[in-house]
Specification:
Number of strands: 5
Helix content: 40-55%
Structural class: alpha+beta
Strand order of the largest sheet: 1-2-3-5-4
Number of helices: 9
Largest sheet: 5 strands, antiparallel
Order of helices and strands: HHHEEEHHEHEHHH
Mean pLDDT: 93
Length: 222
């Protein structure tokens, strides 16, 4: 079944109650309105993902946990107010390899491509590709500039470290971490049966950015 209004509604209610007892009493709703729609979404978007990288895993079981690890969440709500799925090559490297992601919250949905955590060796390799004008970067830059859905994100250095570079290169060079993201409050699209096709096609439009990141991984020096 596709996502419905019950999906963000359950995520919101569960987060507000922030109770293991409440969650277990309503676990069937979680299975029906959150896990099942995500499972269908992952299965339907898989052909688009595999077209980009056949090695990316599309296992619905990799859906994020709805609760936080108590060891690292002191002073925070136990239950999250958003649920996401990460499309990456392996579960073990999901936080260090580039990946695609899709997330649902009471406020809407967001999706994109990039890193949860960008390592220094990766950033060094990426900057080499940018400065040398490598084809992987020119293709990624063209793909990014020819679309209006995604924004380039990641913390910027306070001082410009590459004053001699063109402005269109600096936005890639002067970042401590890097990713593309899109945020939407269009619930009509979220609830539509065409959602997997829409997101899959938009992921394919920015596939050159993913390939740039993967090339940086291939040439990085640890």
């Amino acid at each position: 079944m596709p996502f419905t209004a019950k999906t963000p509604e359950f995520i919101f209610e569960n987060h507000v109650h922030d109770s293991k007892e409440w969650f277990h009493e309503h676990k069937s709703d979680y299975e029906k309105y959150v896990k099942e729609p995500f499972r269908e979404f992952v299965e339907l978007i898989e052909p688009y993902i595999k077209e980009i990288d056949a090695e990316i895993s599309c296992d619905p079981k990799r859906l994020s946990r709805i609760y936080r690890d108590a060891r690292y969440s002191k002073g925070m709500s136990v239950f999250r107010d958003y649920i996401w799925y990460t499309f990456s090559r392996t579960r073990e490297n999901a936080t260090s390899l580039p990946a695609f992601y899709f997330s649902v919250s009471p406020g809407g949905f967001d999706y994109g491509c990039g890193y949860y955590y960008t390592t220094t060796p990766t950033l060094v390799a990426l900057r080499k590709l940018v400065i040398s004008g490598d084809y992987s970067f020119t293709a990624a830059k063209e793909a990014y500039m020819n679309q209006k859905v995604f924004n380039l994100g990641g913390d910027l250095y306070k001082k410009d470290r590459y004053p001699d570079q063109p402005e269109e290169n600096k936005i890639w060079l002067n970042r401590k971490n890097i990713f593309l993201y899109s945020e939407s409050k269009d619930f009509k699209t979220l609830y539509s049966k065409s959602l997997p096709q829409k997101i899959g096609e938009e992921f394919n439009r920015i596939a050159p950015v993913y390939r740039l990141f993967m090339k940086a991984e291939q040439i990085r020096e640890d």
